[in-house]
Amino acid sequence: MFFGAPNSVLMTLPRLVEDMFATHKSIEARQLTDYDVFSKKGGISLDRIVLSKSLTDLVPISVSVPLVTEPQGQADFIAILDQTLLKGHKVLAYAKPGAAVLVVSSWNPEELLANLPPESAEVAVARQLRVFTINAKDIAGKIAGAAGPAHDAVQNVVAHLAFLRLYLGNNATEDLVVKAARAVYDEAIQGFPLSKIGAHAWAGLQEAYVATPEATEAQAAPLRPFEVNAIAVEAEDGETVVNGTHLSSWHDAAKHLLFPSVYAPEAEPSDELYPQIPELRPEIPDRTFLVTCTVNRRLTPLDYDRNVFHLEFDTSGTGLKYEIGEALGVHGWNDEQEVLDFCNWYGVDPNALVTIPVSADGDQLHTRTVFQALQQQIDLFGRPGKSFYTDVADYATSPVEKYALKFIGSAEGVSTFKKLNEKDTVTFADVLRMYPSAKPPIEVLCTLVGDIKPRHYSIASAQAVVGDSVHLLVVTVDWVTPSGTPRLGQCTRYLSGLKIGQKVTVSIKPSVMKLPPSNMQPLIMAGLGTGAAPFRAFLQYRAMLASKGEPIGPVYYYFGSRHRHQEYLYGEEIEAWIMDGIVSRAGLAFSRDGPKKVYIQHKMLEDAEDLARMLTEQEGVFYLCGPTWPVPDVYNALVGAMVKNGGHTEESAGQYLEDLKELERYVLEVY
Q: Are 84 and 244 in contact (CB under 8 A)?
């Protein structure tokens, strides 16, 4: 089996292999060519060489020789002529146990292993596949020089010789491989001796020893199978049929508008009162809603260095429902001016049309302007993973930049990658500016970068109280890199700039922050900064119950920030709830207001006896929301309270808190 791109330099290799077998009268060879034009831009070609020991009148066709992946595959040999297929498609699944796999690529064995998906590595190990790589393009460059007909011809011969060596197996020698090749080649290829090409091909073939992949919590995207869905990739006028991501035109867009039933399936009828808007962030599986900003109010003084702000969105007519404690997913946009500046630097017209996948791992496409794609969908100013460096290296025209990018994406470059990612916090756009010769076409860049992910914020309201509205408490995230470059969080920047009346796409995410089943169970809430958001919803709900005359249990509220005057978030509401008896005890810790720093754990220690009683005797529930750093101190404060007042040892108190986790009575939502 030969997997490749239909119009690549190596597209003639399968025919050369078939011609070689055809010179032997005792072997019957048939070449079957199929195409998958939907799963990758430009399509994928699959050429199968079917061999028989005796002559037959039967001419096999694709349907009579079906593709088989499970349980053991069918191919004795697999050639991957486009290295990108190895990362996105399950090409190794078609190999039978013990088969040889040839990857014609720019990768050395270490780089090949670094780019081999865990799913493919598991197949290679389970079936004991032998995987080899050869850089036919590099070898052709050394022999034939710059790109051209001679370079292309030599490249095909190099790949063919590598196939012959693997086909001959343990019997192969350099001379025997060249001798076998003489069945279809002259002594010289474009003026270059076949023996010289053979020597380079022999030396350039390297084996990559695949090991069982290490277990990881990250969920890798599933690999795609090869699906036969076309018999050709060229139209009658000679133009390539383009599927997948590609630059488009306004004429193409007009066809979609004029003939929607041809280009898109009809939406299934829905009896929902508020059906999903299909055009609203179709790239994500979650139900999305279009809400309207009604309030954007800064809570901290203008001269304060932290911009904490309160947002309210009108949800009427959307069908959005949320439970207390859930989170709101905000599908933010990139900054308009930054996108335009990038387009200008990259040399791409922001008004040009590009057809890109609706989602990074889906087959549906939609057409947008480049500006729309980069502002609303593509995570251009997000942080790149290691694979981006190796992917974009293939487009670098500078050898120095190509090497640097491949190094960062390799196992050896982990420390450099970590510095760029964690200290310098570089974005996809930054990497492209750092290595300006690496400029993939804009339609390719869109697929390499991927989609903007929603940012989730704890909802700061109870819908039973506020009705068709949802509230958020947000702090602008900003920092300065070691090089002095100021940075702003993408989504908080987007939210802070919202105007009244502006539409925002949102979704709902469940959370661990839930009220207990009984309204009489004590609540112990500890929040730092914007960690106060879910507790405002809790208090709104308990206050509503109290206003109806329903009994409620005690509420202890601990809140921490730097200064009372500048950052006592929702302070007026909290004080009113204290006066009304909704909040039984408020432990307010403003760390920089006094001569000695005071944090929420210190306030909790003052109430150690009450906390121990509520947790051990009254089925109280403890919540902590905010940054991770106070978790150990808060934990120690609770353990100390139960040791001193609850008859526990440190060990039994710690185990008691672990048991409360299982009962959802010790709840942490930290970030």
A: no
Kindly tell me the burial class for residue 325, based on how many C-beta atoms sit within 10 Å of its own C-beta (0-12, 13-18, 19 or more).
buried
Q: Mean pLDDT across the stretch 345-374?
A: 84
Same fold, 281-331+454-511 and 523-670: no
Q: Which residues of 336-366 are buried (b: 16+ CB within 10 A; e: fewer)?
A: eebbeebbeebebebebbbbbbebbeeeebb
Strand partners, 230: 35
Task: Confirm whether pTM is higher than 0.85.
Answer: no
Q: Decide the pairing of beta strands 555-561 and 585-590.
A: parallel
Is 555 within 8 Å of 583 (Cβ atoms)?
Answer: yes
- What tokens were used for 74? 């069918």
Comparing CA positions, the residue from 536, 504, 534 lying closest to residue 318 is: 504
**88 with 224: CB under 8 angstroms?**
yes
DSSP string for residues in 622-671? EEEEE-STTHHHHHHHHHHHHHHHSS--HHHHHHHHHHHHHTT-EEEEE-
H helices of 34-94, where? Answer: 84-88
CA geometry: angle at 489 spanning 483 and 493, to 5°? 125
Nearest-angstrom CA–CA distance, 588 and 219: 41
State how far Cα 310 lies from the chain centre.
30
Give the residue from 44, 33, 36, 15 showing the smallest Cα distance to 159. Answer: 15
Strand extents, DSSP E, 259-339: 288-298, 308-314, 327-330
Q: Find tokens 């390799």 and name the residue.
A: 410
Parse the chain into domains and list their residue ranges: 2-208, 244-276+333-453, 281-331+454-511, 523-670
CATH number for the domain running over 244-276+333-453: 1.20.990.10
Over residues 450-466, the mean pLDDT reads 95
Specify the fold of 523-670.
Rossmann fold (3.40.50)
Res 116 pLDDT > 80: yes
Cβ neighbors of 269 (< 8 A, separation 6 or more) are: none
Rg (Cα) of the chain, in Å, rounded? 32
The conformational region for residue 448 under phi > 0 = left, psi -120 to 50 = alpha, else beta, is alpha
Q: Cα-flanking dihedrals φ and ψ of residue 437, to 5°?
A: -80, -15
- Right CATH number for 2-208 from 1.10.287.370, 3.40.920.10, 3.30.2350.10, 3.55.40.20? 3.40.920.10
pLDDT at residue 2 greater than cutoff 70: yes
% of residues, the chain, pLDDT over 90: 65
Yes or no: say if 577 and 583 are a contact pair by the CB < 8 Å rule: yes
Phi first, then psi: give them for residue 369, nearest 5 degrees.
-75, 160
Measure Cα distances from 102 to 80, 134, 440, 608 in Å. Answer: 6, 8, 26, 68
**68 has pLDDT over 60:** no
pLDDT digits over 497-507, tens only? 999 999 999 99
